[in-house]
Amino acid sequence: MNRTLLIRGVASAVAVGLLLTGPAVQAASKPVTVALPQPTGPREIGTVALHLRDGSRADPWIKEHDRRELMISLWYPTRRPDGHPAAPWLPPRAAEAFYRSSSLSPAAVGLPSTHGREGAPVAGRGLPVVLFSPGNGADRSMNTATVEELASWGYMVVTIDHPGDAGEVEFPDGTVTGRVLKPVPVSRLGEKADEIKVRVADTRFVLDQLKKLNKGQNPDAEGRKLPEGLRGAFDLSRVGMFGHSAGGATVAATMLEDRRVKAVLNLDGPVLGKVAAKGLAKPYMLMEAEIFDKPIRGQKAFWSRLKGWRLHVKTKGAKHNSYTDLPLLYEQAAPVIGLSKEQLRAVNGTLPAARSVAVTRAYTMAFFDLHLRRKGHLLDRRSSRFPEVQVIAR
User: Fold this and answer.
1) Cα(345)–Cα(336) distance, rounded to whole angstroms?
2) 373 C-beta neighbours (distance < 10 Å), count
């Protein structure tokens, strides 16, 4: 089974996803279920999905929605996980859509379960808050390995789907929306600026709903039961964001527009729109991949407009999707779907999946520990623990 792995929307510098060309991959004699690495923190993890409806905005992309509707997930520490099932990486119908779009067979490759326990009670009050925005064509699950790591160390993490831009979003009634927006080549990235504005509005609306949750209110559109302990669990004076690809553009633009966001980490994404011209005065970090540097070079002028703490690093051997869960999927599924070592390197780069997860987890944690908790020294200098991570600029 000699299949070619392609990144969804290769023509776009901000596309993320998995496609296998040709007929659907058939079940192999030894199917594999992809596994996410265990989080390293001392706490067990709880999670819950919420359906949010913004009555103040029309949905520009999903014709079936007269108002803008979002799906988010909260990930947080818990002391009482027993009796709560492990959450799937994607909910069932979204997973079916993922299989269809990727031509993978569920009999050959099983998507992972997560370490998050659905509906488990929240442990702790006043947790620092980190929001995650995925890339074009990706889902809020795309960085679960890093999200779980943050939650296991005591962060409240909020992952956001941007329907119409996301690959597949499942709503509580079972409907699934797919990607409506079209990818563009790197030379036309500027055309994405208006789409980023919608993502920024999504994010600011989510922040408003977190305030309601912190007061003990329930903003879920169906009023579904929420986990115990959400009231008072958020320290909304300590809010950071990270995003991959177009999600990186989203977090930078959001911090310019919303003073509630105190620090942002851009995982190999461009900077588009007003923020590119104005710059930022609060902490900003860019993690770049070795092979995705053309649009990043366009940030040189932006870099000079950063007036706060700043750091630019590049990971040797990394590709654009190395900062997501996808290398785990590619690497573990490769023997089943017939990917050669050369094909796997074409997708994952030379950085092993376990190492790409370790790098992404460590530097994401270090960034938010420094700026939301005022601790940690990993970012002070190049680290002997991570020799593949090169400091490009400060």
Assistant:
1) 16
2) 14
**Does residue 271 register a pLDDT over 90?**
yes
Residue 31 pLDDT level (bands cut at 50, 70, 90): confident
Give the model confidence (pLDDT) of 325-346 as tens digits. 999 999 999 999 888 999 999 9
Q: What does the H/E/C string look like for 266-325?
A: EECCCCCCHHHHHCECCCEEEEEECCCCHHHHCCHHHHHCECCCEEEEEECCCCHHHHCC
Q: How many helices (H) and strands (E) does the chain have?
A: 10, 17
Residues 5-393: name the CATH superfamily: Alpha/Beta hydrolase fold, catalytic domain (3.40.50.1820)
- Measured distance CA(382)–CA(135) in Å, rounded: 28
* Alpha-carbon separation of residue 2 from 10, 93, 107, 322, 345 (angstroms): 20, 28, 18, 23, 15
Q: How do the domains of the chain map onto residue ranges?
A: 5-393
pTM for this prediction: 0.92
DSSP state of 186: G
CA distance 293 to 186: 11
Structure tokens of 19? 């496609």
> What are 39's two structure tokens?
């989080």
